[in-house]
Design a protein that fits this description.
2 copies of one chain form a homodimer.
Chain A (H helix, E strand, L loop, with lengths): L1 H7 L5 H12 L6 H11 L5 H13 L4 E3 L7 E3 L6 E5 L5 E4 L2 H4 L10 E12 L1 H11 L1
Parallel strand pairs in A: 3-5
Antiparallel strand pairs in A: 1-2, 3-4
The structure holds manganese (II) ion (2 copies) and zinc ion (2 copies).
Chain A binds a DNA duplex (30 and 30 nucleotides) through helix 2 and helix 4.
DNA sequence: CTCCTGGTTGATAACTATTATCCGCTAGTA
DNA sequence: TACTAGCGGATAATAGTTATCAACCAGGAG
């Protein structure tokens, strides 16, 4: 951690550490806003802009990943290893999907395209929302 | 077309027809703004808000699909059949990837998740951008 | 064909997510 | 401990999208 910053020649501030630790402690792929809400209790002087800037910095350093959500609000993840996601279309919950077979999909046959990676986005209903929908149907 | 609207009990207006036809004629997954720019030549009185509302309506009717781009700008597609995308990280170009083997991925093992579908998002450099990058390296 | 009427359009304000600006302050270094 | 480049906080600005609302039109009744 401290190491990653030194290597990149980027100062390690309290705020950066706090943002990273909070993100690493959560597994719900929070948005910048959501992280800010969690952090302001312990760090009342923290600014939302700092959270955004920090997430950008961490992303550039490869220490966090970004999940593009259909809600137009970017969601972040401290897990940078290749993995995939299952998104609930009802509540927006994003769950991790670890499945090595998904990591080795054949590259697209599009002429000239130089692939750098891929991600699989499942959509559907999470356990909780599926239950709620069931009740409605009855 | 006219049929789909009647079935849904939704009035078929000139604007809706125009937006749909323009989208169907293009294969670059345009944004609402981009469609608006194309259409305003032929329909000077068309409003950007109408394009947004129409795309929503068409999407609800299942007549267009939406591609979530990492640029925070939603991109649309008249192709609603299952298919995937290759996104250029340099210029934002979105290309279609038709590959039936990608359509049959195993559903996520996440407990309780009720899958409705999935999409594979390749990222990398399009043919044009890959060439440009090559030149820079030299 | 004409009239009615609820849904739609166009203009624009409002809103949300994100980024830019700017100045006082701090992390890293010696 | 002092220096200074870069950072953080406050806030303005911007981009994309949605809400509002009066005028208008598509589609059905007569
Ligand atoms: Mn994840
Ligand atoms: Mn497509
Ligand atoms: Zn859910
Ligand atoms: Zn490109």
């Amino acid at each position: 951690m401290r190491e990653s910053f030194r290597k990149a020649g980027v100062p390690l501030t309290h705020q950066r550490l706090a943002v990273y630790e909070e993100l690493a402690a959560r597994h719900d792929h929070p948005s910048a806003e959501s992280l800010y809400e969690s952090l302001r209790k312990a760090y009342p002087s923290l600014s939302l802009a700092t959270v955004y800037k920090t997430l950008q910095t961490l992303h550039t350093l490869g220490m966090v990943s970004r999940v593009d959500s259909p809600t137009a609000q970017a969601r972040y993840d401290a897990i940078v290893a290749t993995h995939h996601h299952a998104v609930c279309t009802a509540c927006g919950k994003i769950e991790d999907v670890f499945d090595p077979s998904l990591d080795r999909l054949s590259a697209p046959k599009t002429a000239g395209f130089v692939p750098a990676g891929h991600s699989v986005h499942f959509h559907g209903l999470c356990a909780k929302c599926a239950k709620t929908t069931d009740k409605k149907k009855k």
